């Protein structure tokens, strides 16, 4: 029963932006693994080589750094419909410089990056999905950079 519910959650997220049909989803779902992460559980840790994309289908999580003094710094929050991964790990096989952690109970649908790329090579909707994910990431980074460079500390806090 949970598997059916998880598939429905993933389907509702994926079809928000693109018209995936049942056959496209069914052929892809066999490559996804559903994972439940308890609050405070790590999805991955700093120095892990991350090879999967973890689509967040339920819950809230965050990315954070820990400096040399052991202090945590928020990188970003992730909510339902977002995803956890380390682009440097996926593309360059570099260790992740940050942690990804569940803040509430989270359910993720993970797929290997290689498998996701394979889907995007053979299916237009999956290609569009991957492109849209990267576009949203680029826009988020652009806005964050502008905020860091142009806004005061108080303005950045109020936007957070």
What this model shows, in words?
- This is Cyclic nucleotide-binding domain-containing protein.
- This protein is of the alpha+beta class and 160 residues long.
- The chain has a single domain (2-159), classed as Jelly Rolls (Sandwich).
- The chain contains 6 helices and 8 strands, in the order ααββββββαββααα.
- Strands 1-8-3-6 form a 4-stranded antiparallel sheet. A 4-stranded antiparallel sheet has the order 2-7-4-5, with no helix packed on it.
- The model has no long low-confidence stretch (mean pLDDT 92).
Which labels suit this protein?
alpha+beta; 160 residues; 8 strands; 6 helices; single chain; four-stranded antiparallel sheet; Jelly Rolls
Shape estimate: globular
Given as residue ranges, the uncertain stretches (5+ residues, pLDDT < 50) are none
- Given the structure, what is the number of helices? 6
Percent helix range: 40-55%
State mean pLDDT (0 to 100 scale). 92
Strand order in the sheet with the most strands: 1-8-3-6
User: Which sheet architecture does the biggest sheet show?
Assistant: 4 strands, antiparallel
Amount of beta strand: 25-35%
CATH homology superfamily: Jelly Rolls
- Tally of discrete structural domains: 1
The second-level CATH architecture is Sandwich
CATH topology assignment: Jelly Rolls
Secondary-structure content class: alpha+beta
Give the termini distance in whole angstroms: 37 Å
**SSE order, one letter for each helix or strand:** HHEEEEEEHEEHHH
Count the E strands.
8
The CATH class, by name, is Mainly Beta
Write down the Rg: 16 Å
Protein name: Cyclic nucleotide-binding domain-containing protein
InterPro entries: cNMP-bd_dom (IPR000595), cNMP-bd_dom_sf (IPR018490), RmlC-like_jellyroll (IPR014710)
């Amino acid at each position: 029963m949970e598997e059916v519910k998880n598939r429905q959650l993933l389907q509702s997220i994926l079809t928000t932006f693109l018209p995936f049909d049942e056959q496209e989803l069914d052929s892809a779902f066999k490559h996804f693994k559903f994972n439940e992460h308890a609050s405070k559980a790590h999805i991955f840790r700093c120095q892990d080589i991350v090879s999967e994309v973890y689509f967040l289908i339920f819950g809230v999580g965050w990315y954070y750094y820990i400096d040399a003094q052991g202090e945590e710094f928020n990188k970003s929050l992730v909510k339902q419909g977002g995803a956890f991964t380390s682009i440097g790990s996926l593309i360059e096989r570099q260790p992740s410089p940050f942690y990804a952690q569940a803040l509430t109970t989270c359910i993720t649908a993970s797929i290997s990056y290689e498998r996701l790329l394979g889907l995007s090579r053979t299916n237009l909707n999956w290609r569009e999905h991957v492109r849209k994910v990267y576009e949203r990431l680029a826009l988020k980074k652009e806005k964050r950079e502008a905020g860091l460079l142009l806004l005061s500390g108080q303005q950045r806090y109020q936007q957070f």
